[in-house]
Amino acid sequence: MSTNKTVFYFILCFALISTAGSAYAAIEQLSSKWTATVDDEIKALGTGDLDGDNVSEIVAAGPRKVYVFSAEGRQIRTYPINFTASVIHVADIDGDGLGEILIGGGYMEIKNLSFERFDFTDKNNIHEKPEILYKTSRNLGDVYMIKSGAKEPVKWLTVGEWVRDIKTQDLNGDGVPELIVASGGSNIDYIEKITIGTNPDTGNQTYIRNYTETRYENGSILVFLPNRTLAVSYRTNNVLWYVFPIYLQKANGMVIVSGSMDISLWTLGGTTVSVFKSLDNSYTILDVFSDKISGGKANEFLAWFSNPSIDGVYLLDLDGIMLWQYRSPSRNMRGVYSLNLDIDGGKEVVIATTQNIYVLNGAGKIKWSYVLPVPIDKISVVDLGENKYTDFVMSSGKKILVYETSERFIKAQLAATYYQEARDKYGAGKYSEALINLTSAKDVYSQLSDSEGLTACDKLFLTINSSIKDVRKDTALSLYKKARSEYYLGKYPEAKEFLLKAKDIYLEADDTDGVSRCEEFLLEMGRSEGTLTSTTTIQEEGSTLPEDVPVTTQPSSVNNQGRSPLILGTAGIILVLLIGFGIKQMKDHKKAGPKKPSKNKKQRDPLDEVSIAVSREESKGASDDSSAGSNENKPEVSAETAKQNSYRSDNAIPLSSEVSEKTIESPESVIEKTVSSEPAASKPSAENNAQEPKIAAEGKAIPLGYAPEKKSENKSNDKQKTQQTDKGSAE
Prior knowledge:
The chain is an alpha+beta fold. Helices cover 31% and strands 32% of the residues. Strand 16 (242-248) and strand 17 form a beta hairpin. It starts with a helix and ends with a helix. Mean pLDDT is 76; it is low at 5-25, 532-564, 596-615 and 617-731.
């Protein structure tokens, strides 16, 4: 493909992508399903199947009530509560097929402590204590459960720290899920410090009192059996905001993933498997989960990080190596999820902030974004189950908003994906696969009645088909050249096979010039296969070779297909060499000029005599047509034709490749006869000059096609004629 064509196709593809992209962006990504308003400001939000119908319900908790809505937006029931909810998880804990609502809560407990100001340990040295803890503030939390048919939640687990996350997973393989809780928070100790100093006013010693606050964090991972027995616990000095169970091959079992300033992996026996450090000490890890995000065979860890100035996510492999990082354009992230939004088989990463939804592909590149109608506080991105599209369940103040990915948008995105894959495969030269993807894109655009998308597909179809034709033409030309090569080597069947293949491809590509070229070559091959080479008999003087045994070349046939082109090629080379030699002789002759006849007796060159003898023998052979019995099929050469051939050039080789059969004396015998019977030199007559234009006199060889006119057999008459001519010339 030429450079100009490449540039043209690049520009065309860019225009097509821009057209498809503009149509794609014009469709709304999310569509509103319903909105509901409750009495309390929503503090926690969750979803899950409560009644076993494989359709999830929506559970929202405020300071005073828990609200349950169906997937269609109908309020099913409410429950009173007297604690602040922080997280909601729905799971079947008791195995009855119905989901229980697990609500984690937390609060700060402030206590004023009673204390003794003086230290009476040493009765001889009673003194006021230097430090007194007089008040504490502790984060506390519990897990509450609402069973099916219950009227209110009941405390199910006492955790002792603010509950941050709840997960359920069968960790020991007994078929019953365990409850995993991540907890933690800040604590404050209020301390009075007493020192002895001097009163600046009186100069007397006195007690100086300073009041300080000491802050610190704590956190825990707690694993409870279904009977609420604590099975495993991990204690840290940081808040553990998340927990995620996963089977890890290198640990040969389930591990617990959690952390705060870093990501820690623990076995069920309490052994630390790995610790993945955060970006730096200013970042807090707020959530981590594992999924096959980048499209590989192994799971990866997706972590949500935050610091006072920026939020974002990064992807780690199972060894903790960062694969990519994405920093959110908006601050205050509300959630991170991994799921298949556009039903294409690949996972997308969904990032929710207070005002925007950002969707990334598996490589961490932005695919699309959506501006939310109101700022949100909480979000849960799930498939509620009533259709195949992903739902966005959000809360904003006292409102619950449910959106779903638009069916039209999903189809448009699917069509755009097919179109992009077609363009990529076209760029990689995979034209057949590109056409398959483009056909799928066109089908989806037809369902959407998207005229712009259909136009873009049609244009790309033309571009791909044009490239396919170019490739086919190149293939056909290569086959044609192979046919030529095999033909020159005499391999006619192979040449014909290549040529027929080339012709078929030219027909498919609708290339009439290529078809005509192949047909002309086929005719040429037919003529070559049916042509017999000339038969020539050469009989030397004194040879015992009979006249009826010709020396011939074999006709072109199946058994001799490799010989005819070789012989023709060799003959052509010899012919070119002879012509070049003749031209050189002519130039040498013209430079030397005509030789003047010498009055003295001079011995002539024997080669001249050979040429004259050959000429005379040819003349004799031409006049005796009946003696050529072995040349009955040869075309006859008339005297006029022979005369014309003799005047073409002093050194010319006859154009006709056919030579009349004749008897040729050997050069040695001719030289011997010429030297022994050489006549006295005489001045050539004008008549002889006209008949033989200086050929013999100048020592030039007689052309093979030269046939002089038949001379009189009466030598005396010829002699007399010569003498009269000489006399006339003298007068």
